[in-house]
Design goal:
It is built from six helices and eight strands. It is an alpha/beta fold and about 170 residues long.
Length: about 170
């Protein structure tokens, strides 16, 4: 994979405003370098669909692989998955039952009822490669089209790092 170019997009107004330090981009950059994947750009964008869509399209124009962190939560401003899917032309979404069961068990373990809006986190475009999340409620995924790939990862580093190592590194190597 040494001829691949990658771009990282960190999603979240809290990152853009400096309220949270972006350690995910640093971690991913280091891991990509370890396997010889070139990276020329890193971007941070707030929780805005239009700006996110533009940023993803721009990244796809200059890289083979676009890795996004953040914006996979259950709230209305978590729009990374839907926006990335739209950029690639994915229109059909369905619930991933394995992810739903895993999420449900997580809520049971903590003795909480699962809010209905969390189901948004287990809705994926048809054909997505699902990346399980053993440390939180937001699974990631990989979307592929025309020789390009978009990898979507959760924002919390304690969720993103193990997912990156367990699922993304094997995909890249």
């Amino acid at each position: 994979m040494s001829n691949l170019t990658a771009e990282i997009i960190s999603v979240g107004t809290e990152l853009l405003m400096g309220q949270i330090l972006d350690t995910n981009a640093q971690y991913i950059s280091q891991r990509l370098a370890e396997v010889g994947i070139n990276q020329y750009y890193r971007t941070t964008v707030g929780d805005n669909r239009v700006r996110l869509q533009h940023t993803i399209q721009q990244a796809l124009d200059r890289a083979d692989l676009v890795i996004l962190t953040g914006g996979l939560g259950p709230t209305e401003d978590d729009l990374t998955k839907e926006t990335a899917a739209a950029v690639l032309g994915y229109t059909e979404f369905s619930i991933d039952e394995a992810s739903k069961a895993r999420m449900y068990q997580r809520f049971v373990h903590y003795n909480h009822a699962m809010p209905e809006n969390n189901l948004k986190q287990v809705m994926f475009p048809k054909g997505a490669i699902i990346l399980p999340n053993d440390y939180g409620t937001a699974p990631g995924c990989i979307l592929e089209k025309d020789g390009k790939a978009i990898i979507l990862l959760p924002g919390p580093p304690r969720e993103m790092r193990p997912m990156f190592d367990a699922s993304v590194m094997p995909y890249l190597c």
